[in-house]
Amino acid sequence: MKGRALDTGAAERLATGQTTLAEFLGLGREQLYEIAGRAYGLMNSGRLEEALVIYRGLVAASPADSVFRCHLGAVELRRGRAAEAEVEFDAALRFNRANVDALSGRGEARLRLGRLVEAVEDLRAALELDPQARRPSTVRARALLHSLR
What we know:
Blueprint: H1 8-15, H2 21-25, H3 29-44, H4 48-61, H5 66-78, H6 82-95, H7 100-112, H8 116-129, H9 136-148
Helix pairs in contact: 3-4, 4-5, 5-6, 5-7, 6-7, 7-8, 7-9, 8-9
C-alpha cells in the first residue's frame, strides 16, 4: 500500500504533546468545525450515539477546544450520563471560563447529580455572562433557576 512517508519529527511532536492530532493530520479549524456542525445536527435530531462518536473524535483531534468539550458534555447529558457530562463541561471551562453553554450545562449536570448549591452557582454565572438570555442554554438556565425557587 502506498501512502505518504511518515514525518518522524511531526510524529514525535504529536507523541510528546507539542502538537495536536488535528495539526498532525493537517485538519484546520474550519474543517473541524464543519465536522462539528454535522455532529450538532445529529445530536439535535436525537442520534446521540453517532454524535458521541464524532465529538469524541473531535476532542481527540483538538483536546483544548472548549466548544468540542462542551458539545461532548451536552451529548453525555442527553444520554443521562450527568457525571460524564460534568467532566466534559469542566474541561470546556478550563479552556474558556466564559463558555456560557458549558456553565449552563455543568449546572444542569450538577442539578441531576443532586449538588444543588454548585448547580445554582453555575446557572447564575451563566446568566451573569448572558443576562439577556440570548443563548438557548441561558434560557434553560433561567428556567431551571425559576423552577428551583
